[in-house]
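In this section we turn from sequence analysis to structure. A common task in structural bioinformatics is to predict how a protein folds when a small molecule is present, because the ligand can shape the pocket around it. The inputs are simple: the amino acid sequence and a SMILES string for the ligand, here nicotinamide-adenine-dinucleotide. Study the lines below before reading on.
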Amino acid sequence: MKYTLDLSGKRVLITGAAGGIGLETAKGFLENGCDVCLADFNGEANEKAKNALSDSFPERKIIAVTGDITKSEDTDKIVAAVKDAFGGLDILVNNAGTGANVRSLNETKEGWERVIDLNLNSHFYLSQKIASEFFVPQKSGNIINMCSLSAFIGVPNAVAYSASKGAVLQMTKSLAGEWARFGIRVNCVCPGFVETPLIADNLQNERWMAYMHMRIPMKRLAKPEDIVGSVLFLSSDLSAYVTGASIIVDGGFSSGS
Ligand SMILES: NC(=O)c1ccc[n+]([C@@H]2O[C@H](COP(=O)([O-])OP(=O)(O)OC[C@H]3O[C@@H](n4cnc5c(N)ncnc54)[C@H](O)[C@@H]3O)[C@@H](O)[C@H]2O)c1
């Protein structure tokens, strides 16, 4: 066995790839010789991301598909585009996610369902679709779920988000146990607080930022590039015996110090 992170030629689908962690993850895969499908419901940002990445990685196949992954007809479109462009798939990164700062007593049915539908339900249905279409027939596949530190700790004013991520953690373990016999590995990466548009409100909040700098042992929030290495590790043969696992990437926040 060679102890190098060899991903060359792998075909990767990333949801929520037009910005934030998803876009940086796409760069990571492309730098390691993969072909990548960027799926995002923000068509304009997705096309822009594809054009910028194509300029940087002209030798790689990169496609952008506009679609809302909470809609079955859109995920059918994404799967068809992957099949058409790549003829198959090796790695699925379930990354698209959303959240909202809302007090639990004010949470609405619509707000709750919007978060659960994207962060949990869509990841399950897309994994199921990709497994049936590609991974089970080829007897190999790799799924990385973008989970969160909030799967492990309660986050005030983000009850739907925390609940969705706790469920993603358990979904990861359940699918890992069930699909190992098909040669499919399922793992998750659990970032702490990452500087992306998802937490734009918090990033503007000086008190919150001061608290975070005091509370995080590494004294800074994560940047999207801090998350990519764990995704690549879990996607590669370096983690061939790892499934059902979660890697917390939080600068030490959950260490309790
Ligand atoms: N930023 C953080 O602090 C943080 C911490 C822990 C976990 N995460 C997780 O990381 C993942 C990526 O988050 P981010 O911080 O990069 O967020 P982001 O808001 O920067 O990016 C999310 C992307 O998902 C896309 N998207 C949203 N809804 C979609 C839908 N229905 N269909 C298709 N695409 C959709 C958006 O257009 C956007 O490009 C999420 O699952 C999030 O929960 C983020």
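Residues 109-138 form the longest helix (30 residues). As an exercise, try to locate the residues that line the nicotinamide-adenine-dinucleotide site and compare them with your own expectations.
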